[in-house]
Amino acid sequence: MPLSTPNLPRFTLPVRNWWHYLYLLNSQQSHLRMNAVFTTVDEYIQNAPREVQDLLRQMRHTIKTAAPEAEEVISYAMPTYRHHGNLVHFAAFKNHIGFYPVPSAIGAFKKDLEVYKAAKGSAQFPLNQPLPLPLIERIVKYR
After folding, report:
1. Nearest by Cα to 103 from 126, 85, 128, 79
2. Residue-level pLDDT at 27
3. What SS3 state is found at 90?
4. Distance between alpha carbon 133 and the CA centroid of its chain, in Å?
5. Average pLDDT over residues 76-87
6. 62 with 130: CB under 8 angstroms?
7. Where are the alpha helices (DSSP H) in the chain?
C-alpha cells in the first residue's frame, strides 16, 4: 500500500534536504523574503526590515571581531561562519534573532543564557532588547 504524502507547502527556493525543508517551513515566520536566494551576508542583511538590519550588522561585526579568521558564507539560508567546521549561524525572525553556535557552547554559557529562550543548540535574542554583544563574543571565542 503506497504511503500518502501530506499536503505540505511548496517553496520557490531549492530545497536541498529534509532539514532544509523544515528550516524553510519554520522560516515562514521570518521577516525575510522567502523567495529570495541570498548568496552573501550583505544581501541577507539588505533583505531584512530596516529596523532589524542594525541588529544584524552588530551581530555580524561582533562575530567577525571574535573570529577574524572565520569564513563568512550563507548556509541553510542563514549567515554562517566557518573555522575548522561550522562555528556559528544567525538568522532574523519576526520577534527575535536566532543564534546558533555549537551545542557545547550553549551548555558552557547556560547560566548567562538563562534570561533568553535557549535550546540545545540555539538562543533567541528578542528584537526589542539590545543584543548581548559581550556574551556573543565570548560564545564565539569559546570554540
Report:
1. 85
2. 53
3. strand
4. 15
5. 92
6. no
7. 18-26, 41-46, 50-66, 103-108, 133-142
Quick: pLDDT tens for 95-110: 999 999 988 999 999 9
The average pLDDT across 29-40 equals 64
3-state secondary structure of 122: strand
Distance in angstroms (rounded) separating the CA atoms of residues 13 and 33? 11
CA–chain centroid gap for 124, Å, is: 9
Written as nine digits, the cell of 120 is 540545545
Owner of C-alpha cell 563574543 = 137
**What residues contact residue 49 under an 8 Å CB cut-off, 6+ apart?**
31, 92
Higher-confidence position of 64 and 9? 64
* pLDDT tens readout for residues 6-17: 554 454 445 455
Task: Spell out the residues 6+ positions from residue 11 whose beta carbon is closer than 8 angstroms to its own.
Answer: 21, 24, 34
Length of the chain: 143
Q: Which residues, 6 or more positions from 7, have their beta carbon under 8 angstroms from its beta carbon?
A: none
Residue 122 to residue 26: CA distance in whole angstroms? 14
